[in-house]
Amino acid sequence: MSGRFAELDWTDTPWGTLSLRRRWDSVTRREVDEVKLDDDFLMSSQFTVAERELARLGLAAVDGDGLRVLVAGLGLGYTAWEALRDRRVDDLVVVEALDRVIDWHQRQLFADTQGLANDPRTRLVCDDFFDLVRTRRWQQPVDVLLVDIDHAPDRVLREDHADFYTSDGQAAAAAMLTEGGALALWSDEPPDAEVIHVMLTAFADAQAFEVAFDNPLTGGVSSNTVYLAKGPRRR
User: Fold this and answer.
1) Could you give the CA distance from residue 170 to residue 177 in angstroms, rounded to a whole number?
2) Which of 158, 101, 150 is nearest to 125 (CA)?
3) Where is 122: in which H helix or E strand?
């Protein structure tokens, strides 16, 4: 990297201008990868505790071996990478709407998740996850569904994502799961009782986990939320 900042890639997409940059952070003293969509920061390698915990909590909620996992949103790959660390996972499908993000992983641009695209258990699929759920196009039940796309259920990247967070949307997600399957959902906001209420219309059990981590940039502790729903109800 030349100097303290490098733009590694950018492209126009139907969602806006997607850019990938790498910079040196003088506080944490490490190189940080960041992805932006227009002026909106989508993801960063600065803090990845909650993205990893999303996979751990989702997988811990299910029993058995030979697990099939679907990750919605590839990003920098931390959730998918963490899922692959569970030896019970036989099949990992990652659905990503932006093909350039898939290309970054195929080009092995990220040191922390290098090899993700080449793992024989991994399939990277370019598709609109929310449309896939809405239209019930997904035909192979999965044991674990891990979703990390929007900032939060009430802070979506696109308006057409919002129906996923309704009772009908959760019912469609539940229909993608095996009998003992689980859905885990990342959020950048504190736990919201209304999200739990909506999940319980489609699942037998739902709860929120607050994931805290030290933040040297603020000198304090930051947190994200992982919502976990189990026991899909059949409609």
Assistant:
1) 11
2) 101
3) strand 122-126
Taking the C-alpha atoms of residue 23 and residue 32, their distance in angstroms, rounded to an integer, is 5
Cβ atoms of 1 and 9 within 8 Å: the answer is no
> Which three-class secondary structure state does DSSP give residue 41?
strand
Q: How many Å separate Cα 142 from the centre of its chain? A: 16
Each domain of the chain, given as residue ranges in start order, spans 47-232
pLDDT value, residue 1: 44
CATH for 47-232 (3.90.1150.10, 2.60.120.1440, 3.40.1190.20, 3.40.50.150) = 3.40.50.150
- Cα–Cα dist 176/155, whole Å: 24
CA 155 vs. chain centroid, Å, equals 15
What is the helix, strand, coil percentage profile of the chain, to 5?
Answer: 25, 40, 35
Q: Which pLDDT score, from 0 to 100, does residue 235 have?
A: 73
Q: Which residues of the chain have pLDDT under 70?
A: 1-3
Assess contact for 118 and 87: CB atoms under 8 A: no
Residue 2 structure tokens: 């030349």
